[in-house]
Queue: 2 jobs
Job 1
Amino acid sequence: MPQIELLACTKIFSKRQKDLADLEKSSILDLCDLKKLRKMIEEYKSYLPNPSDPNLNLNHLKERLEMYRDNLQGVLKAETELRVHA
């Protein structure tokens, strides 16, 4: 069975408005393992001839993906603090 992160990547590296709308309005990104998704994005981005193409959905989602990264870092920090105080 395909991983949800692969589905997200197909939409992230697309230029289609429908894919962008799916990423923004559905729960696809919420269902992803964010650590795995960020790793996949970085890996796949290296294969693109022009990763800074302004038409790529990736470049429309940077702010949202950074928000997910910040949330993930906050969760990891909270888990670490719980372990230390337990």
Job 2
Amino acid sequence: MNRFENPNAEPWFRWIFRRQDSLPFVTVYFLSRKNSTSPRFFPLYDRSKNFRIVVVRGINLPYTDRIGLLLHKIIVRTFRKKINRYIWQSPTNLHSAMSAKNNILLHLDDPLYSVWEQKMIVRLLERSREQKKTLVVACTNRYTKDYLNSFLPSENSMIVPQGHLSDFQFDEGDDFIECTDRVFKVVYSSPYIDVKGDKHQDHDMWDSSHLLLELLPKILLFTENVELHLIGKLGRNAEKIVKGESRVVTHGLVPVSTASTLISQCHLGLYPRLADYRRSVQKITEYIGAGIPTLAYKLVDTDIVSEYRIGKVVETPEEFIASLIELSRFSEEFFGYRASVRQIRDKLCWRNIVFDMEKHLLTRNNCIS
């Protein structure tokens, strides 16, 4: 996810010798070798046709990310005069963005901003509104989105939702196939799947103790046709739990495209996490992209599931198991959820989101008629 496939992306040292860019929009994008940089919205640039992506890469050595970020700022400040319309990837260059007269694309993703950074972001948004700048905001926090929807003028701004990369085509007729004798495949996908004693045992997102220690024994006990698929790197102790279980299939850590294919071959996506970050969940969006419903606990994170009726949300482990049993019977409820998923999946496809974003930017800057 941290490598551009877009032919419009090029190294910074090549771009600085370009007298005038042939594309209407330019962004300088810093890519860390040690940490993912805005991975949730990486496809927002990578799928674009009208962005020149000036890539600054970090070095896989301690403390060198600071050097890369410094180089990023120097490039923006030194060469911004030759940029026709610059897309600011904040908060790296908040000071520069504050004084800019051009377009702004502002990332408000998941980092915990300092009080100073929060104030700067609010000032930037206020000034953008006063100057009627064209603004695109990419954020996942639910409350931030609600605030921005009421704060920003819709004619000049666009809030980018969390998207998915899947472009599968589905046969609508298969929604009515009788499936009572088939294996019901459920899937859980995470980069790391650990339990107590593993490296990420205390990580809110990668600790899968609830799934493997509490839910899995009941799934195996109370169902006969449910098969659990795990996509991600299992910790040593997690691997011991599922070893020898004929109805548990492990796929390991695989590329995003492979994971999307594997998820699409299942019937139901599980979101058995209890921590609530009050944001859009990339995992649920991946399930949507693969065309399958979601079974989850009731959280702000999972509001999208109940809002669009693309799955079921429950409050207790007992309800989780009971709902899984009912859905595994290929009930009308299951097919209703699946039909709803396939109605909204195109709306959240990155290809369509990028198209809408570029149209928003181009039409408001007289690049197209």
